[in-house]
Design brief:
13-stranded mixed β-sheet; 566 residues
């Protein structure tokens, strides 16, 4: 999704970015340390957290794979080449090549397969639990930098925190059907697999426990974590998972076949036939920056209106290879997924749909077209008369009026919350209840509505809209370039301490309950007889309660045959 922001706000953010760079420089001590890895030595820098100036060590820009350039473009990653001497890892390397969400300019590099390791202490009585962060961004944007995901809040705890880059958009998800070309797709997901292998093999050098690794992500990063829990490529590489606002069951987490590669090549000037070898030859010879400049423009307005948000994302691979990560649809793999054996935190935010605020404001077509709200796989499996029946059911559910012919913006955004995020999370809860009953599932609902610190909502909607939007919980897990420093007496600061306390407690022990919660207690999911799940509601106060969205999600359940739900 392209976010449109006024120039005054951009200029203000630019000023904050400059100030942040100065702040980060001042928060380094200048002390360096050299550690071994399987591929060579790395030099890191001692830094200080933004609150309390606590010390931690930062190793940034460590290569976990060969640069995916030349013949490796679009293909599965290869292990890195060993290096001689000491590799300087005291600052971030380039982000993955992408189009900037705010300015529309192309930035980053094809040579992006690096990860960052942050550790509270290099010596302790026993190795520290490890948290691996996979960023979101719709598989089109994202980076593992301190600008966006600074580890300051986590570095007040005894943990190792790792953030990873992976390839995005066409460079990370181009898929071709010809097995001879070895480009089945999902290269960006395979980057994540390679990073997890590197972490498993090397994290002990950073005082991390290779037998206590938690993988967490948000949005597309959360769907990625779910894929990592399902593919056999990662069995045994991590031991717990945190899924924030997304899963692999989500419609947007599986790209349908709309001949994307041919359409991309044509947009770039290709005149040849719709034939994989010729398309690959053309795209391999095209400058990567040109591909990144237009790969999101391949999709049409009609496709976007049908909730096809981007062209290049995860696919069911057209043939199996030794690096295959998605051999079948995710729903078909739920029952046998090795991730059923591990504890999980999962959940979402109370008004996820606010992420589409500007899309609806700019194109109100969706306010009058209810049939497009039906999930794509549901709509494509039934006739128009049956679609009409489901639309009437939707209208009765949300408006109590089957004849209502249009929606207000916030009515539509509420429906989008359930369609795009919450119903798929609910389906995963049902699957975990059935197939992973021996492993705890902790469900949360983030509902902390700060007027000034919910950064994604403010960025997308401005300062006059309230509600807890998609990605707003990230404000309470990561310091970033638009964060302000809080008074420690504030509810916002208290929420940071509680969120980080729960997440690190779970990473350490598999149980999110921690001293920061006081008398509140987070219980694993237990479905009632009516199928309603209880969640841990994270607001100004924390409490276990019935999921407020349950009534709506139960109706969405009826759109699917029981065997197709999970």
């Amino acid at each position: 999704m392209e976010v449109q922001v006024g120039w005054p706000k951009l200029l203000k953010m630019g000023a904050q970015l400059v100030g942040h760079k100065v702040l980060q420089y001042r928060l380094s001590t200048g002390h360096t340390v050299i550690l071994d890895t399987k591929y060579g030595q790395v030099r890191g820098l001692q830094r200080k957290t933004v609150y309390d100036k606590e010390l931690y060590f930062a190793f940034e820009g460590i290569p976990y794979a060969k640069p995916p350039v030349g013949d490796l473009r679009f293909r599965a990653p290869q292990p890195p080449e060993p290096w001689q001497g000491v590799l300087n890892c005291t600052t971030n390397r380039s982000k993955p090549l992408q189009r900037n969400m705010l300015l529309g300019i192309v930035e980053g590099s094809e040579d992006c397969l690096h990860l960052n390791v942050y550790v509270k202490s290099l010596k302790s009585e026993k190795p520290l639990p490890v948290i691996v962060w996979i960023c979101g961004g719709g598989f089109q944007k994202g980076e593992a930098s301190r600008d966006v995901y600074s580890p300051d809040y986590f570095m007040k705890q005894q943990v190792v925190f790792v953030s990873i880059n992976y390839r995005l958009a066409a460079l990370g998800f181009l898929s071709l059907k010809d097995p001879k070309l070895d480009v089945p797709g999902n290269a960006g997901l395979k980057d994540q697999v390679m990073a997890l292998r590197w972490i498993s093999q090397n994290i002990s050098h950073f005082n991390g426990d290779p037998n206590n690794i938690t993988v967490m992500g948000e949005s597309a990063g959360s769907a990625s974590v779910h894929v990592m829990m399902t593919t056999e490529q990662t069995r045994g590489l991590f031991h717990k998972a945190i899924l924030q606002s997304g899963c692999a069951l989500s419609e947007w987490a599986e790209s349908p076949d709309h001949n994307w590669a041919f359409r991309l090549a044509q947009n770039l000037g290709y005149k040849g036939p719709d034939e994989d070898a010729g398309i690959l030859c053309f795209l391999s010879g095209t400058p990567a920056r040109k591909i990144a400049a237009i790969d999101q423009d391949v999709i049409t307005q009609d496709e976007v209106r049908n909730f096809l948000l981007f062209a290049f994302g995860p696919v069911v691979e057209p043939y199996e290879t030794d690096h295959c990560v998605v051999p079948r649809r995710h729903r078909e793999m739920l029952s046998e997924a090795w991730g059923n054996e591990i504890p999980v935190i999962m959940g979402g935010n109370s008004f996820e749909g606010l992420f589409s605020y500007q899309v609806l404001r700019n194109d109100p077509w969706g306010l009058k077209n209810f049939h497009n709200i039906l999930p794509r796989e549901v709509r494509e499996a039934i006739c128009l008369e049956e679609q009409d029946q489901l639309v009437r059911r939707l209208k009765k559910l949300y408006f109590k009026n089957e004849m209502q012919d249009s929606m207000e913006v916030f009515e539509a955004l509420n429906i989008f919350s359930h369609r795009q995020i919450w119903h798929d999370l609910h389906r995963l809860v049902l699957a975990r209840h059935t197939y992973a009953s021996r492993s705890p599932t902790y469900l949360y609902r983030f509902d902390f509505d700060s007027p000034h610190f919910n950064q994604f909502r403010r960025l997308v909607c401005g300062d006059h809209i309230r509600g807890v939007a998609h990605a707003d919980e990230l404000s309470y897990l990561f310091y970033n370039i638009i964060a302000s420093k809080l008074e420690k007496s504030s509810k916002e600061y208290q929420t940071i301490e509680r969120m980080v306390g729960m997440w690190t407690s779970f990473a350490s022990s598999g149980n999110p309950n921690c001293p920061e919660l006081g008398t509140a207690k987070w219980e694993p999911v237990q479905l009632k007889d009516n199928g309603v799940e209880r969640c841990f509601n994270i607001s100004y106060d924390f409490e276990m309660r019935e999921l407020p969205e349950a009534e709506f999600l139960a109706v969405w359940d009826t759109f699917y045959p029981r065997e197709a739900l999970f």
